[in-house]
Design goal:
Helix content is 43%, strand content 10%. It is of the alpha+beta class. The chain has a 6-stranded antiparallel β-sheet with strand order 4-3-2-1-5-6. The radius of gyration is 26 Å and the shape is globular.
């Protein structure tokens, strides 16, 4: 056990011994925790060791305080990714929507315009679907050797974070200097950037397709009204189009959806840097 030079610090809670008396007593020599019999002084040295050596890797990883309950009424979704339909676009392709990611206190962040990230003001309406993520699946390394993911050097180069909120703040600052484009740099890009910075699930390969699939496949509806407002405009447009133009309208609508899917698939997996996620 190495010797510890006890720093000057404020310490309370040692019954029967004042702070000045304890500090004077300890600073007369260098002590090891194992060499101290007095439990009060031993506790003081343990605190000093922690102060001297820094918080341990294990503590940094496990110090995850409990989250508040999800509260749709107050638009609070702690550590969730959230989704809502887009005007016009979702009327033609209901699987496309606007996404955001939430801080540990439930505040929603979403990239909705050039050089602008919304904070606690989700664009395009209330949340319709959400998925709460597990912070235990994130990588918060105190150093290069402390990575829990398999992408240590790549993650370090990307920019690691010490907490969930820290990762979101770093991505927010980055996207406050990016131009919004529905086809190349959109809200899904921002969310993928956050998940890559967190190395969520041990992966650094998050992109707009994997983000969309995650919320569409595993997401939960807030309520029945959310389902209605997500699909009713599409069904209304579809019925009106068939009534006016016949079944050719369905073919045109399917072609529009297919072109969007092909574009995003090419950008996510085939053509590098076509769609931003960094």
């Amino acid at each position: 056990m190495p010797l510890v030079q006890v720093p000057q610090m404020e310490f309370k809670g040692l019954a029967g011994t004042t702070e000045d008396e304890m500090c004077d007593d300890i600073h007369q020599s260098l002590w090891s925790v194992d060499q101290v019999d007095d439990p009060r002084k031993k506790r003081f040295l343990e605190v000093a060791e922690e102060s001297d050596a820094g918080v341990s890797d294990e503590r940094m990883h496990l110090d995850l305080w409990p989250l508040d309950e999800i509260d749709p009424g107050k638009a609070k979704f702690p550590c969730c990714i959230v989704w809502t339909p887009l005007p016009v676009v979702s009327w033609l392709a209901p699987f496309i929507g606007h996404v955001g990611i939430c801080r540990e206190d439930g505040t929603i962040l979403d990239f909705s315009a050039s050089n602008f990230v919304n904070i606690d003001n989700f664009a395009f309406g209330a949340v319709a679907r959400y998925l709460q993520l597990d912070r235990e699946q994130c990588c918060f390394p105190p150093n290069l050797a402390g990575h829990t993911c398999k992408h240590g050097y790549r993650h370090a180069e990307k920019g690691t974070a010490i907490s969930w909120d820290d990762a979101l703040h770093m991505s927010l600052r980055q996207y406050q200097h990016k131009s919004y484009n529905l086809f190349t740099c959109n809200c899904h890009s921002f969310l993928a950037n956050c998940l890559n910075r967190l190395a969520y699930g041990g992966s650094m390969g998050w992109n707009i397709i994997t983000v969309a699939a995650l919320i569409l496949v595993k997401g939960r509806w807030v309520d029945n009204m959310s389902v209605l407002r997500s699909f009713f405009p599409f069904m209304a447009v579809l019925c009106f189009g068939v009534w006016v133009a016949g079944w050719a309208f369905c073919l045109g609508l399917a072609s529009f959806s297919l072109l969007l899917v092909v574009w995003y698939l090419l950008g996510a997996f085939c053509v590098r840097n076509l769609i931003e996620c960094d």
